[in-house]
Amino acid sequence: MGKSKERTPPQCEGARQQATDWIVFILRRDSECERCKCELGKGEFICLTGKQVLCLECAGLSHLEFLPSGDVAITRRATKYSELHVVVMKKSAARKRSERQGILAEPEAIRRAEEESAADADERSGRRKKAAKQREKVDKKYVAQFARAIHRQYPGCPEEDGTEIAVHACKKHSGRVGRSAAAKEFDSTAIRLAVIAHIRHKHTKYDRLLERYGNKQLARREVRDQIDAMLDEWEQPVQSMERMSGRNG
Fold it and tell me: In the chain, which ranges are E strands?
């Protein structure tokens, strides 16, 4: 039996690629198709085409099957093998945005994608582990470079403090200053901000003051002189600090 003819959505006949720009939503409340007036309940699919809200049948998408998000390899292959695919979204009231849930694709394409992904799952797992080790190696190298940059800018900074600053500031996915573009260029301002943050939390009473006042600016104002003094001290070469210590003794 020959392959059945693709059912192209009526609004985009002759321009199949445009169908992939359509978005299908998972309903959060009951609705109805504006063309056939069929009732659509919560959890069913609805297609937004311009100003119309259509059921999958009227949109020409009822022959497609839902493939949930979760396995990137299967989704990528199903998208490749399916002559027609549409992104499926769902509105999140809590996050006040629409979030991708998966795709609608041809059943045959999904089955093929699942079979191929199962066949090379071990190989892909090995590649992921290898890539993860490489990323970890690169990340450790970056942390070490950041620590060296700290000691160049603040030669009087104790080694354990410099290492702790670098590890904390450069923690992946933290949004901290060490992950910024400026820090990756070892910008002096970025390094200074990381050092100040460390001194504030580790060498002053800032955290206790913040708990007492409940006001960040007020707590920072009280420890500012202490931070500036330590910054001045760490900016001095170790030899100079030792000589000063000897004279004071």
Answer: 23-26, 31-32, 39-40, 45-49, 52-54, 65-68, 86-92, 97-105
Residue 196's pLDDT is 95
Residue 12 in this model has a pLDDT that exceeds 60: no
Per the model's pLDDT, the better-predicted residue between 125 and 138 turns out to be 125
Summarize pLDDT for 64-86 with one digit per residue, the tens. 999 999 899 999 999 999 999 99
Q: Could you report how far apart the first and last alpha carbons of the chain are, in Å?
A: 97
Per-residue DSSP letter, 11: G
Whole-angstrom distance, CA of residue 220 vs CA of residue 203: 13
Distance between CA atoms of 96 and 117, rounded to whole angstroms?
34
The answer to whether 88 and 78 have CB atoms below 8 angstroms apart is no
E-assigned strand segments in 57-172: 65-68, 86-92, 97-105
Nearest-angstrom CA–CA distance, 113 and 31? 33
Given its phi and psi angles, is residue 171 left (phi above 0), alpha (psi -120 to 50 degrees) or beta?
beta
Please give the backbone phi and psi of residue 192, each rounded to the nearest 5 degrees, phi first: -60, -45
Strand order in the sheet with 52-54: 52-54, 45-49, 23-26, 86-92, 97-105, 65-68
Token digits of residue 22 = 């359509």
